[in-house]
Design brief:
Blueprint lengths: L4 H4 L1 E4 L5 E6 L8 H6 L3 H8 L8 H8 L6 E8 L5 E9 L5 E8 L8 H15 L4 E7 L3 H9 L3 E5 L2 E10 L1
Parallel strand pairs: 5-6
Antiparallel strand pairs: 1-2, 2-3, 3-4, 4-5, 6-8, 7-8
């Protein structure tokens, strides 16, 4: 890994007082996905992947834990006490390298405690440090919580011209 891992690590407490440790993801974090997926509703998985995902096998998960850090970053949020995976936020450079696309998922029982907000702020800080000109993402129109957070963080939100069920969100730097 050619990034300064310690520089991007964060420790903070959620609104309920739970201690959180966030750090760049590593290949050995693949083992944490099984319990994470088991604690995440099918609806939340559908909102993240835009459809149902039934098989989180090694081939699928290795794409999320074995990164080319020159083009991508993922931050994993861990419970400070139990080391359980609570969420992950990802950023992947576009082909031209001028911007990056983000994705985020928070374990269903952790929604509403500020974890998604912390992860998005870290992704934004990382995007600015690269430096990308913008970060962007696609959000299902029905995902009101994610669209609200994007709006509060300053993202421009527009309907996708090719798919009325999707909103394109973009934050220019």
């Amino acid at each position: 890994m050619d990034i300064d891992q310690k520089h991007w690590e964060r420790h903070f407490a959620l609104s309920d007082g739970r201690a959180i440790h966030v750090r760049p993801i590593r290949p050995d974090d693949e083992a944490l996905y099984g319990p994470f997926v088991a604690a995440t509703t099918a609806q939340d998985i559908r909102l993240r992947f835009f459809g149902p995902v039934k098989d989180f096998n090694h081939a699928f998960l290795s794409r999320f834990t074995q990164l080319d850090y020159a083009r991508a970053m993922a931050f994993i949020a861990l419970d400070g006490a139990t080391r359980e995976m609570l969420g992950v936020a990802r950023l992947h450079a576009t082909d031209d390298g001028n911007s990056a696309e983000f994705a985020i998922i928070v374990r269903s029982d952790m929604k509403g405690h500020g974890l998604g907000w912390h992860l998005m702020q870290l992704i934004i800080a990382y995007g600015r440090a690269k430096p990308y000109r913008s970060i962007q993402g696609m959000v299902l129109r029905e995902n009101a919580g994610m669209l609200k957070m994007c709006r509060e963080l300053g993202f421009a939100i527009a309907p996708d011209p090719a798919d009325g069920d999707i909103c394109n969100v973009k934050l220019d730097f």
